[in-house]
């Protein structure tokens, strides 16, 4: 065995670790104060494969809560049978989802009244009287398509720009 070779290797490893810390620290500092143009360009990719029908996840997109929900056939049917004339902000489920993917409801988790985060995406949370989302701040209730049905909020939960990048992954933004 050659002891000089071993010394060289361990010095090399320490130097490499030092570089690694520097590389990791930079993006963290950048995230603390993103400029407006950086925010505008940022996208979020999400893997939906673990979300079972009837479940939702809370993610975040440009620092706002994002809900992704896998609707059950019953929830899709409930949304589709509401006449658009009953809606404050008339939109069909089809208009709020992607073609052939009506079960994937992707919305911001931001109440359109004063911006609270509605309940209903987390396990066991109150989905409200229309089975979608319920805002605990002043009682706005959204249906299974995330449309406003009751309470002070004027608009449906916003659907961000997104696209499917595979059968079970989306790119938001
Ligand atoms: Fe949601 Fe007021 S902020 S009902």
Automatic annotation (TrEMBL):
Extent of the signal sequence: none
Domain of life: Bacteria
The organism of origin for this protein: Sphingomonas desiccabilis
GO molecular function: 2 iron, 2 sulfur cluster binding; metal ion binding; oxidoreductase activity; quinol-cytochrome-c reductase activity
Task of the protein: Component of the ubiquinol-cytochrome c reductase complex (complex III or cytochrome b-c1 complex), which is a respiratory chain that generates an electrochemical potential coupled to ATP synthesis.
Stored NCBIfam families: Rieske_proteo (TIGR01416)
Keywords in alphabetical order: 2Fe-2S, Cell membrane, Disulfide bond, Electron transport, Iron, Iron-sulfur, Membrane, Metal-binding, Oxidoreductase, Translocase, Transmembrane, Transmembrane helix, Transport
Transmembrane segments annotated in the record for this chain: 8-29
EC number: 7.1.1.8
Keyword match Repeat: no
Main location (coarse class): membrane
Keyword Ligase tagged: no
Catalytic activity, reaction form: a quinol + 2 Fe(III)-[cytochrome c](out) = a quinone + 2 Fe(II)-[cytochrome c](out) + 2 H(+)(out)
Alphabetized PANTHER family for the sequence: CYTOCHROME B-C1 COMPLEX SUBUNIT RIESKE, MITOCHONDRIAL (PTHR10134)
Compartment(s) where it occurs, according to its Swiss-Prot or TrEMBL record: Cell membrane
InterPro entries to which the protein is assigned, alphabetical: Rieske_2Fe-2S, Rieske_2Fe-2S_sf, Rieske_Fe-S_prot, Rieske_Fe-S_prot_C, Ubiq_cytC_Rdtase_Fe-S_su_TAT, Ubiquinol_cyt_c_Rdtase_Fe-S-su
Cofactor(s) the protein needs: [2Fe-2S] cluster
This protein's encoding gene: petA
Cofactor note: Binds 1 [2Fe-2S] cluster per subunit.
Broadest EC class assigned to this enzyme: translocase
Family membership: Belongs to the Rieske iron-sulfur protein family.
Subunit text: The main subunits of complex b-c1 are: cytochrome b, cytochrome c1 and the Rieske protein.
One annotated Gene Ontology cellular component of this protein: plasma membrane
Remarks, miscellaneous: The Rieske protein is a high potential 2Fe-2S protein.
Topology of the protein relative to the lipid bilayer: Single-pass membrane protein
Name of the protein: Ubiquinol-cytochrome c reductase iron-sulfur subunit
